[in-house]
Amino acid sequence: MHAEIVVVGTELLLGQIIDTNGAYLAQQLASIGIDLYYKSTVGDNRGRMIETLKRAVDRSDIIITTGGIGPTLDDLTRETVAEVLGAELELHPNLLEQIKGMMGSRYTDNNARQAHIPAGALPLENPVGTAPGYFAPTPRGGVVISLPGVPGELRYLVENTVIPHLKERFRIEAMITSRTLKCMGLSESYIDEQLDDLIKTSNNPTIGLLAQMQLGEIHVRLTAKAANAEAAGKLIDPLEHQVRSRLGKAVFGTDEVEYEQAVADLLKQHNCTIAVAESGLSGGVGHQLGSALAGDPHFAAAVTAHLPAALEHLLDVPEELLNRYGTVSPEVAVAMAHGVRKRNGTDLGLAVTGAERLNGSDETGAFIALAHGDGAVTEGEYRRVSSMRFARQRIGRASLQLVYEHFVASIQR
């Protein structure tokens, strides 16, 4: 079985709306072992929609359309699907009554268009919206499934009706389960080299790499096909063990775990408190860590200070140091780390000072310092030719990485 998605809407082609439905549908299809071969986006144009749908019906078993089943004249999905399938549009009185009940006093004659579906199609009732869909059979034994473009409605229908229908209709018994290992601090090429033999020889489960450049992370996706999630998990477990043994501390979490949460968990496990000081970065680092530790006693403070006078007053950075090295320097980062730690009485003091044009260059960068026991300091640096908007999150991750590796090192000792 292979599937195709046809996303309908001129606003998507113009970039006025970002298509999130396509990615969601792809994930849902993969979860039950259906391969997605094609995805098309087409505007609200009858001729181009017919052309796109004809191609989809000729080559795919399952075609899912999103959008274009509203009440207005530019909602053309019903008409074009019916024409491609050689069917007439038929009024379903029960759908009309449901639409009237949903719309109430807002009902107009235009809404009646939504109660018409291609002849021979199975209605797909929509209890969370006014646009019912349908399952329309194709000449080659497949099906066209038309869904509303509103994400909330689409997701409800997919999870409660579409996926169960597909599993029953095509007797799908296997399912696909993925587990993602998230890595920080290693390049994609290095990970690929370390896992090369596993990638080449593993068939079920398989291994795939995905670079999350904005986050500075590399994701290793382990995917297995089995009768159920438990069986798939048992296939994945030994491969995960092999991957972790090769990548070591770089694997910070799985699936939904974010890096800041992994750092927050380490602070809790070691019962360590932390305070953060920033200059030139609008509080990005403190925000990331503070989100993961909101209301938690392990997170004492986040201080943002840009002017030299503020660094002196709030963080006890010596004036002489500022005059000699400037605000954005490794020396000032160290002083900030000591200052925020001492001022707040915490176990750790994390400091980062950065600028969009570091020392007059085209680089966005920052100097990072982590103050810990007995006056010891671990230092880091981030430099990249990019805008501050893109780099700010990467600098935040690089700062948190200093904390993460501090705990990893203490565990190894």
TrEMBL record:
<dbReference type="InterPro" id="IPR036653">
    <property type="entry name" value="CinA-like_C"/>
</dbReference>
<comment type="similarity">
    <text>Belongs to the CinA family.</text>
</comment>
<dbReference type="Pfam" id="PF00994">
    <property type="entry name" value="MoCF_biosynth"/>
</dbReference>
<dbReference type="InterPro" id="IPR001453">
    <property type="entry name" value="MoaB/Mog_dom"/>
</dbReference>
<dbReference type="InterPro" id="IPR008135">
    <property type="entry name" value="Competence-induced_CinA"/>
</dbReference>
<dbReference type="InterPro" id="IPR041424">
    <property type="entry name" value="CinA_KH"/>
</dbReference>
<dbReference type="InterPro" id="IPR036425">
    <property type="entry name" value="MoaB/Mog-like_dom_sf"/>
</dbReference>
<dbReference type="Pfam" id="PF02464">
    <property type="entry name" value="CinA"/>
</dbReference>
<feature type="domain" description="MoaB/Mog">
    <location>
        <begin position="4"/>
        <end position="169"/>
    </location>
</feature>
<dbReference type="InterPro" id="IPR050101">
    <property type="entry name" value="CinA"/>
</dbReference>
<dbReference type="Pfam" id="PF18146">
    <property type="entry name" value="CinA_KH"/>
</dbReference>
<protein>
    <recommendedName>
        <fullName>CinA-like protein</fullName>
    </recommendedName>
</protein>
<dbReference type="InterPro" id="IPR008136">
    <property type="entry name" value="CinA_C"/>
</dbReference>
